[in-house]
Amino acid sequence: MAFSKLEDAKKIKNLLNRNGYNDILACNSASQVIAAANENDGGIVLCGYRLPDMHYRELYGYLPREFRMLLAASPARLQECTSGDIMCLSMPFHIYELVNTIETMMLDLNRRQSRKKPVQKKRTEQEQRIIEDAKQLLMERNHLSEIEAHKYIQKLSMDSGNSLVETAEMILVLD
Asked: pTM of the predicted model, to two decimals?
């Protein structure tokens, strides 16, 4: 949360704390927000139109992709906000408007993060050995190169919906 007056940020932070949002950092400069954002995996930046060191659009440009912005400003200032990626909230606002907007943004953020491709874990030596044994068997039995054998296992894996290791195990069992 970033507003040019730190007292404003702290007041809004207290309102949000009372409504169940506890992991909030109150800032009064864009540089503080950017530093905090670079240390976190994602979130929402609630900010005013202009901070002492940066305009909201500049700040948005420096935020990591995992962050969303909620601009709180006067209706006249909000008319200047043309980015569809930035949510806007007209000031003065009611607390329920703020909480509902943040809740909607959090749901969207969580949905986006859940769609990210999971990080593939590294195979154990045993799993790697199973794949190597299956490739060796295919190379000997079907006269394939190592690359061809690996591609064959990959294709079977994708077609069957099984992991590469499970597919390699099936090849070895069916021999």
From this structure: 0.63
